[in-house]
Amino acid sequence: MPRQRPDTVHAGKAPVGRPPTMPAPRATILGAAAKLFAANGFDGTSLNDVAQAVGVTKAAVYHYFPTKKDIFDEMVVDLLERQYLAVGAAITAAPEPDEKLKAFMQTQAIFFETNYAAFVVMLHGFGGVERNHWTDEQLALRDRFEKLLRSLLADGKAAGTFAIDDVAIAARAVLSLMNWMVRWFRPEGEVRAEDFALQYHSLIVSGLQPRK
Amino acid sequence: MPRQRPDTVHAGKAPVGRPPTMPAPRATILGAAAKLFAANGFDGTSLNDVAQAVGVTKAAVYHYFPTKKDIFDEMVVDLLERQYLAVGAAITAAPEPDEKLKAFMQTQAIFFETNYAAFVVMLHGFGGVERNHWTDEQLALRDRFEKLLRSLLADGKAAGTFAIDDVAIAARAVLSLMNWMVRWFRPEGEVRAEDFALQYHSLIVSGLQPRK
Hints:
The structure is a homodimer.
Chain A: H1 25-40, H2 47-54, H3 58-64, H4 68-93, H5 97-114, H6 116-124, H7 136-158, H8 167-179, H9 181-184, H10 193-206
Helix pairs in contact in A: 1-2, 1-4, 1-6, 2-3, 4-5, 4-6, 4-7, 5-7, 5-10, 7-8
């Protein structure tokens, strides 16, 4: 039977070196990898672990992502692009600076909780600080998001809604509150990330000192 | 020469399996390991890397720390104990709640910068969130430090110095500002951690909303 190629003899079983048919393969692999990287770290997860979680061969994963780092890279770019769209839309819809800041924090928290595993991977997937694992594209997307917040705060300062000495420091403070959540927030807990964000918003707008 | 034991024949040269003479061996190993773990993560560092950095054999490191995790554990306990003493002394010396909060943030930042590598290891040495790498002793020390801050804020609330809805949330906000520094602060930069902490203190005490 010369016309039947060896790698298609066993229909329904994935031949070595060829990807099996699966719906939305890239998204499926990214989703499984996010959970594994989030739980055990980038270094603590192998491409084989990812393949097993998806239920395909390692070769099938290789077909879509030649290296583990390619999975990380696509996950982060996808996350940052969707975050910018979601949070950007929310602040555009809010009428004035304080409402925009509230929308920024609230929407970011909802987005964070909805995409919890990928966030943990992005912000806490690697141990150590000196490994240069962010690409220029990712750094540019991250900076674009930070600029969205700085611009919102600067507008609020110009309008007299906010009294801010240093917009960059204020933006960093807001992002610190949000980002540190990857270290203590538990999706299975009783309080939603959005509720913590609203409490933080109140706190940072009012300050600890009583208003006279 | 039956009275001379084989492992002491070569005086001045470290025999395999026996530690060489070095001053303050535990502190020396912890210091070298802190830098390596901070740069490359816990998983990205081997006991052999640590031995090479100290300039001894792997067996010499084993003599003091049977596993890599033992190094991490002693590093974190030591750090948390010294942090509690340093920050505790500073807030005891400060006269009233707002000065105490300022002392807490300022002293913690100085302590963080002085012990930068060990802090990075403690807060960002491992990738992923589900690895249960903190011992009960470490968790108790961490909680003791957080209680120090909560108690300070609660005293300030009772005295009318602070208007705080939820002391736990306010404490978490302060710690988020401080802890996220492990991800962006660069010791080689121009601004000291202490100066960032003082700006954060001002920001969180006054709030973004202008004071009438």
